[in-house]
Amino acid sequence: MTSQQIIALLPFLVLTATIVVVMLAISVRRHHRITAFLSVVGLNLTLLSLLPTWLADAGPVQVTPLMVMDGLASFYMALVLVATLGVMTLCHAYFEGYNKGDREEIYLLILLGALGGLTLACANHAATLLLGLELLSLPMVAGVAYATTDRRAVEGGAKYLVLSAGASATLLFGLALIYADTGALDLKSLATILVNANVGQPLVLAGAAMLLAGLAFKLSIVPFHQWTPDVYEAAPAPVTAYLATVVKAGVLAAALRLFHAAGAAPSPLVVKALTILALASMIVGSLLALRQDNLKRLLAYSSIAHFGFLLIVLVAPGDRSLEAAGVYMATYLITSLGVFGVIALVSSPAGERDREKLSEYQGLFWQRPYVVSIFTAMMLSLAGIPLTAGFIGKFVAIAVGVESELWLLVSGIVLGSAIGIYYYLRVISALFVPMPGYERVSESMSWAQSAGGVMLLLAMLLMLAMGVYPEPLFLLARP
Fold first, then answer.
1. Which uninterrupted H or E stretch holds 68?
2. What pLDDT, on the 0 to 100 scale, is given for residue 217?
3. What per-residue confidence (pLDDT) applies to 371?
């Protein structure tokens, strides 16, 4: 192997070494803080090991026929690692007071998932795509059901296992159908096949439909979204944050490589399918969010709508779409970390269930003004209010749609965003409504929660910086 290839593999080597060290540390002696410390240090070293390849800007590095390291891979690997670091910080604060079982394995599960996210970002072949998807998803079956004494958590884990396995099997069978007709398995060839797919290739069309269905499940696209609200509600808050950020960033990176590697728009049949899925996700996600009194379920339907907005970048070809996808994903990731981070902090230490009912947040400002201020800013960002990162994300999505004359999808984004403003403001208004018997109290947090609070503050400042001065983010996301 050349020195370039070894440097490109460094993040995988460092993260794998971290997983081994954490596993050995758990086997020698269980200690929550030491396990959290080793995990965070390993992730920071992994992030640092990514810098040489990213800063070198030497063009794509073909590590093996299965993996490629380029600008797209570097950017999404960075997103996955940053999101995982945020989730780790939340885990430390959330599980510090967890006394229903062992706490250390959650860090091992999240590290394994992060390795899957890195694999997806570099995927250049169907084998790597499948391996990355399974490594990204399977550890979180245990993560969702981590509170084994909670019947709802075990049920959520079982749902995620069965439906995720079905989605993976569907994707695998779709790849098999395409391979049977064309003999192609590398992503660039698959992208070309999607561009040229027509009614005269029934196996290819059936395979493309199944491939799209498998990816749509991982991204919570309607009608493959049914698992999302149930699993989001059942999982511990940090695991929900992982599902909303790390999983979505990894799968999106693979989807972008699959739909953009050919350098042209997909077949009209594929474009029509993507358009229908996008519109359905925008409208169904937004409308169902209106009916929710459970905050986790509301955010689940909100994520469905957001990824309906984001599907516009798969329909429109070109570097402009890749840049828009990176900007949107970064803004959504940092905002989601902030929102689920607040839920984790106000729910910690873990009780019978997380603090998730909207009624439980009424008047919370008078008890926890610090976290509620951050929560309010993040909800405004999800709504796409100007001077927030969310506004920049929606703006670039609409700009791509206008440039590509995708008026139907642009109309869907505008309509979905208008509906979203209502239910986001509904949540915000509840935070400031004083309840009978509430008194203004000074905010106190444990040192573990304080670390989570610092992370949330940094996330809010970064979110506002993206909204006020987004140019650095555009430069980073540019392929």
1. strand 67-69
2. 92
3. 85
